[in-house]
Design a protein that fits this description.
By secondary structure, the chain is mainly alpha-helical. Helices cover 65% and strands 0% of the residues. Helix 20 packs antiparallel against helix 21 and helix 21 runs antiparallel to helix 22. Residues 45-55 have a biased composition (Basic residues). Pfam families: PPR, PPR_1, PPR_2.
Length: 456
């Protein structure tokens, strides 16, 4: 049975209209992309509710097309395809098929670009088999898919885990009459890396280079990161050097990927060497590069070297840098050194964020300086940020400072502030870790929760 033959009494227009292809399952052939699957009766599509603004825009666009027809200026394939693309992006696929009907009735033949939005919509919704049937239908009506259509399908395969089908599609590209381009390989390689198949990804990268196609720097960085995670940092460094030898575009993110992994395994001497090599090749280290190094040096107890990097000429610290220093220096008890270090920073250009508040409160609580933590929270310009309150509540409960916690909540409630779910969650976790929920101290839990709810 022909792909579009729904019944013997269908009229010719319906039988050769691509919008009906998704209502039938063609019999599987030996060249099918997907293996044979159970045939299921497809239910009739139901209209989904759409927002009024989308409906208004759709009506306006259709009115413009009707005006063009009345004016003797028949819309061309670009006009119809643009409307189809907009509808599909808005999730109005049913209406998009209606535009295709109107297009065919106006004797305007669709091209590959007309069908690409439908492919994108199907793949986004996980309807991979429907997308494949649409591709097959395009060939049967003399409108073969182009590289854009194949790239959409490859992306859909990768997004939903059809990697064998993606490999099969690439292997049969010549017989199918299309040539994979750089976008095809970049998409496939990124998909492989996201599921941890670094070796397969690098094989595809080599095949890509054999075809004189250039991977994007983003794809190369994804491959490097995946290799470092799945194998060893030394292999990642080897592939970085090989990429440079092949003349591929490498940026500071590529180096930061390797530097991060080297820091994770404590190879700080290799980090300094790699940074030196990077500078020699004309790639300037970013603030992120220095932040990675500062964090690693602090964790290794090399605070003096971390301070040297922080105070080096040309380095511009950001909020992340300050957060790293606050956490590491506080935990090491180097409070005076930290204040001296940050005194030279232009704080007007660096705004503290939630991580800054949380780090200071966590460190003070871990050091048993609960009163300082409470006073710090009071001094915050944002006025009791909810996340910081939750961290302080956790620290006070863990430190068994229930009285101070109740006073804090009473102060906040008197100012008309409302405690949110974060505070409740952190409190319950802290009480459970203290063992209060399974002991005679359960009354303390109830007392605090009552105070938070304003019952007492």
């Amino acid at each position: 049975m022909h792909l579009f033959d729904l019944s013997s009494d269908c009229d010719p227009v319906r039988r050769h209209n691509p919008r009906y292809l998704h209502r039938c399952h063609p019999p599987p052939t030996k060249n099918s992309i997907l293996p044979p699957r159970p045939q299921h009766e497809l239910q009739r599509r139901t209209r989904r509710p759409h927002r009024r603004r989308h409906r208004r825009k759709f009506d306006s666009a259709c009115e413009i097309i009707r005006w063009m027809v009345r004016s003797g200026c028949d819309p061309d394939v670009v006009t119809y395809s643009t409307l189809i693309a907009g509808l599909c992006r808005a999730g109005m696929v049913e209406e998009a098929w209606g535009v295709l009907d109107q297009m065919l009735q106006g004797n305007c033949s669709p091209n590959a670009h007309s069908f690409s939005p439908f492919l994108q919509a199907y793949c986004s919704q996980g309807k991979i088999e429907a997308a494949i049937r649409l591709m097959e239908s395009m060939r049967s009506i003399g409108c073969p898919p182009d590289s854009v259509a194949y790239n959409i399908l490859i992306n859909g395969f990768c997004k939903h885990g059809y990697f064998n089908e993606a490999a099969h599609l690439l292997e049969n590209c010549v017989s199918d009459g299309w040539e994979p381009d750089a976008v095809t390989y970049n998409t496939y390689i990124s998909g492989l890396c996201k599921v941890g198949r670094a070796e397969d990804a690098f094989k595809q990268l080599e095949m890509m280079l054999q075809k004189k196609l250039c991977p994007t720097v983003v794809t190369l960085n994804i491959v490097l990161d995946s290799i470092c995670r799945e194998s060893t940092v030394w292999e990642g460094n080897h592939h970085l050097e090989r990429s440079l030898e092949l003349g591929l575009e490498v940026d500071v993110v590529s180096y930061n990927t390797i530097i991060t992994r080297l820091c994770d395994i404590g190879k700080l001497s290799w980090v300094l060497k790699l940074v030196t090599d990077m500078i020699k090749k004309g790639i300037s280290p970013s603030t992120e590069t220095f932040n990675i190094m500062i964090r690693s040096l602090c964790k290794a107890g090399k605070f003096r070297k971390a301070k040297c990097i922080f105070t080096s000429r040309g380095f511009v610290a950001d909020t992340i840098t300050c957060n790293i220093l606050i956490h590491e220096f506080y935990m090491a008890g180097k409070i005076v050194e930290l204040h001296n270090l940050l005194s030279g920073v232009d704080m007007d250009k660096i705004r503290p964020d939630s991580i800054t508040y949380n780090s200071i409160i966590d460190c003070l609580c871990k050091k048993g300086k609960f009163l300082e933590a409470i006073n710090y929270l009071r001094s915050v310009e944002d006025g009791f940020p909810s996340e910081a309150v939750a961290h302080l509540a956790y620290g006070l409960v863990r430190g068994r400072k229930i009285g101070e916690l109740l006073n804090l909540f009473e102060e906040m409630l008197s100012q008309g502030l409302v405690l949110d779910g974060q505070a409740f969650s952190h409190l319950i976790i802290a009480f459970c870790r203290n063992g209060s929920c399974q002991s005679r101290e359960i009354y303390k839990v109830c007392l605090v929760l009552d105070k938070m709810l304003g019952i007492v």
